[in-house]
Specification:
Helix content: 25-40%
Order of helices and strands: EHHHHEEEHEHEE
Radius of gyration: 15 Å
Number of helices: 6
Shape: globular
Structural class: alpha+beta
C-alpha cells in the first residue's frame, strides 16, 4: 500500500533512483531537470531538507512497501498562507489514481499541518493527466501561462477546514507526518 512520507535524509538513494528511472518519461511533459541536478544530487537534497526545516517548502514522497519512490508531491514557495503545488508520478505507477490520492492527502496536510489556505498549480495544455488530477482534486483554472515556452494553464484551490480529511490509503501514513520520520521530497 502506498504511503506518503515527508522527505528525509535517508530517502536520497531511492529518490535519485526514481528521478533517473523516470527522467525521459517526465521530460515528455515537463522541463527536464538537467544533468546538473543529477551531478549534484546530494547537495541539492541537503538544500531541500534545509528549506523544509525552515518551513519554506514541504516535500513529500509516495513510497511503496519495498521503499521505492512511486511519486513526489511538493509544496513550494510557502508564504502568506499559500504555496505552489507540484507533483510527478513514476511511469510504472501512472494511470492508477495515485496522483489524485496523493494530491488530496497533501491538500489535507496543507490545512492541518502547514496552516495553508490556498494552493496554486500549473501544467501544460498537452499534459492531460495532470489537468485531470487538478480537476479531480478541486483546482480551478484561472488563466493561461507559458511554461518553458509551452502553452499551459494556471490553477488555484482554496482550502477549507473540511480538507483535513485524509484519503483511505493514507490513514497509516499520516501518523509519521509532521515528524522527522514522515517527510517527503521534491
Amino acid at each position: 500500500m502506498p504511503r506518503l512520507q515527508l522527505l528525509r535524509l535517508d530517502h536520497a538513494p531511492a529518490l535519485l533512483r526514481f528521478e533517473r528511472e523516470n527522467r525521459d518519461y517526465f521530460a515528455a511533459s515537463i522541463p527536464d531537470r538537467g544533468d546538473e541536478y543529477f551531478a549534484h544530487f546530494d547537495a541539492r537534497h541537503d538544500e531541500l531538507l534545509a528549506e523544509q526545516a525552515a518551513g519554506l517548502r514541504f516535500f513529500h514522497l509516495v513510497m511503496d512497501d519495498s521503499g521505492a519512490v512511486l511519486g513526489r508531491v511538493n509544496l513550494v514557495d510557502v508564504a502568506d498562507g499559500s504555496a505552489d503545488l507540484g507533483y510527478r508520478i513514476a511511469e510504472r505507477a501512472a494511470g492508477r489514481g495515485l496522483a489524485t490520492t496523493a494530491v488530496r492527502e497533501v491538500c489535507a496536510l496543507a490545512v492541518a499541518e502547514y496552516g495553508l489556505s490556498t494552493l496554486r498549480a500549473a501544467t501544460t495544455l498537452d499534459n492531460t493527466g495532470s489537468r485531470t488530477v487538478l480537476a479531480r482534486t478541486g483546482f480551478r483554472s484561472v488563466g493561461e501561462i507559458l511554461l518553458s515556452g509551452r502553452p499551459g494553464l494556471r490553477f488555484v484551490r482554496e482550502l477549507r477546514d473540511t480538507d483535513r480529511a485524509v484519503p483511505e490509503w493514507a490513514d497509516d501514513a499520516v501518523q509519521g507526518i509532521g515528524s522527522a520520520e514522515g517527510m517527503i521530497g521534491d
